[in-house]
Amino acid sequence: MTTATRPDHRPSRTAPPSPQPPQPRNDRGLRGRLRAVRRWNLPAGVASLLWLVVVGLPLYVLVLATLRSNEAYYDKGALSLPGDLTLDNYRKVLEGDFFTYLFNTLIVTAATAVIVIVLSVGVGYTVVRTLSDTSRRIFQFFLLGLAIPAQAVILPVYLLITEMQLYDSLLAIILPISAFCLPVCVLILAGTMRDIEEEMYESMALEGASQTRILLQLVVPLSRGGIATVGVYAALQAWNNFLFPLILTQSRETKVLTLGLYDYVGQFRVDIPALLAAVVLSIVPIFVVYLFARRQLINGLMGAGGR
User: Fold this and answer.
1) Which residues have CB under 8 Å from 138's CB, separation 6+?
2) What is the model's pTM?
3) Which of 25, 71, 99, 299 is deepest in the core (most CB within 10 A)?
4) Quick one: CA torsion of 117, 119, 121, 126, rounded to 10 degrees?
5) 3-state SS assignment for residue 256
6) What do you get for the CA distance between the two ends of the chain, in Å?
């Protein structure tokens, strides 16, 4: 009796592929492309160098002048080489009323930014989500403020502040600056909120969300870039404003930094090193704010939800 043998189904082992020799790199083509890039970037490099000189020279003069005495500044000139440097100008500024002016400026800046953000978010959301003639006219009314300069209405503003008995107070500065910041800020936030997908609004409405919940949980998080842009813009306008503090305040207790610089301007002579030292110290806080908010500013330019 013969037995059948089961065929062997084991797969046959194949020989491993032989290693391929390394392919030579096309270094010549790579070097050629690098040379082309360097050649085409030469004008950009020259332009960047010129721009660095244009920006760096005023900063050099500004910082160097603060480290000189008043007599050395007038004797040697602004562009002379550094020598006999001193910190007396910064000491003179800090020993004066600089911190009072700084505190007042911080209050005006923070209050203006908060007021502008709250009002522009509400108005922008109303304009975007309310499809009626009234909302469109409100938006056009805000845009009309872009064409009205503050200098043209300073007298009516002065009369209103006086009638409200707010003259010579920080609130007299905060309210007009906030009003003149609103047109630009409403325009920015309305454009940002229009970039939000309509399906997101509809999905939250189908879930039974109220308008307040949609605003706080959907619109505000997706518009944080635009909100940061609006906040920084309003802060810069409040920090650098000179017209309203000059017209609407009078006492030393309500002075801000832009008016405090006049302390170093005398009747017959100007203490330029001390004045520039006060300018440098007044730049530092708003520059720190910009460093922390620059990413959100870029996101605001990218639209809603930009990352």
Assistant:
1) 123, 126, 127
2) 0.76
3) 299
4) -170
5) coil
6) 82
What is the DSSP code string of 49-104?
A: HHHHHHHHHHHHHHHHHHTS-HHHHHHH-TTSPP-S---HHHHHHHHTTHHHHHHH
Residues in the chain: 307
Q: How many CA atoms lie within 13 A of 201 on its CB side?
A: 15
pLDDT in tens, the chain (307 residues): 444 444 444 555 555 555 555 555 555 555 655 565 555 667 778 888 888 888 888 888 888 888 888 788 877 777 777 777 888 889 988 888 889 999 999 999 999 999 999 999 988 888 888 877 887 888 888 888 888 888 889 999 999 999 999 999 999 999 999 999 999 999 888 888 888 888 888 888 888 888 888 888 888 888 888 888 898 889 989 999 999 999 999 888 899 998 888 877 766 677 888 888 888 998 888 888 778 777 766 666 555 444 4
Give the relative orientation of helices 27-66 and 272-302 as an angle to the nearest 10 degrees: 140
- 106, with CB counted inside 10 A (0-12, 13-18, 19+), is middle
Determine the Cα–Cα distance for residues 257 and 270; give it in Å rounded to an integer. Answer: 17
